[in-house]
Amino acid sequence: MKINAPKSHPRYLSNLYRDKLAYGVKLGITSLQGLTAHGRGEAFDYLLGEKTNDFAKIAIKVATCMLITARHPVISVNGNTAILAPAEIITLANLTNASIEVNLFHASKKRENNIVHYLKKLGAGTVLLPNKGIIPGIDSNRRMISKEGQKDADVILVPLEDGDRTGALVAMGKKVIAIDLNPLSRTAKRANVTIVDNLVRVIPDLICQVKIMRSYKKEKLISIIDSYDNHLVLEKALIYIARRLTLLSRNSDVMV
Ligand code: PTJ
Description:
Elements: H1 12-26, H2 32-47, H3 54-69, E1 73-77, H4 79-84, H5 86-96, E2 99-102, H6 109-121, E3 127-128, E4 133-134, E5 144-145, E6 155-159, H7 163-171, E7 175-179, H8 186-190, E8 193-195, H9 199-213, H10 218-226, H11 230-250
Parallel strand pairs: 1-2, 1-6, 2-3, 6-7, 7-8
Antiparallel strand pairs: 4-5
Bound molecules: ligand PTJ.
């Protein structure tokens, strides 16, 4: 992969992720539309200060409790996630005994298989593909799920999701953990737990938290889940953005 920006560039990381996504398109992993979706994410990341804020940290802890206590957790992977955090997805799946399942909005058998091969090359075990499972009430390609994966799952982690599918999965009785930089999205509003942050920071944080919290007693994990309020977390994210922009508008040098 060609990295265009030097490490000394002030926006090196941002450029690196763009290069990764462009490489993903070249490898037949990421969709062209995935590039524009990433652009929307970048804009929100800018508003969030490109860091993991307190409201995201709270959601990450609750998501960790849910993944640890789940009967069958599944990580749903699309073309952006597969290229931005492949090794981290595999590590998280191994640590939580989660299944990895490819789920694409833009239908492409070729891209599905490319993602499977890419993840396997990096050490993934089984990578599930959609088969006979169907999510009722969804018309897009994302309705197709694996019977052994998302259909059976009780907890599903969905980085870069669409709101209809999130709502439909919740209606099926699944607990949905969304990673979405946009706190206004339908996904953010419909998920049980919304981590308003960039997946490139969230997945490594989830790995760290799983390593810490897996020694906790089950009752403690459950009580953390039970005391969580997703609406409050989304409210905090929006208030944070509004406050940050207000401060920035008064003093362009302020860092908050
Ligand atoms: O499934 P594919 O590979 O065919 O690609 C599907 C895309 C990603 C194009 C599409 O299904 C999709 O989900 O796009 P949306 O509906 O625009 O949703 C993307 C959401 O993810 C937006 O709210 C973005 O703000 C957010 N987002 C983008 N990049 C990141 C992100 N959230 C967290 N981390 C990111 N890196």
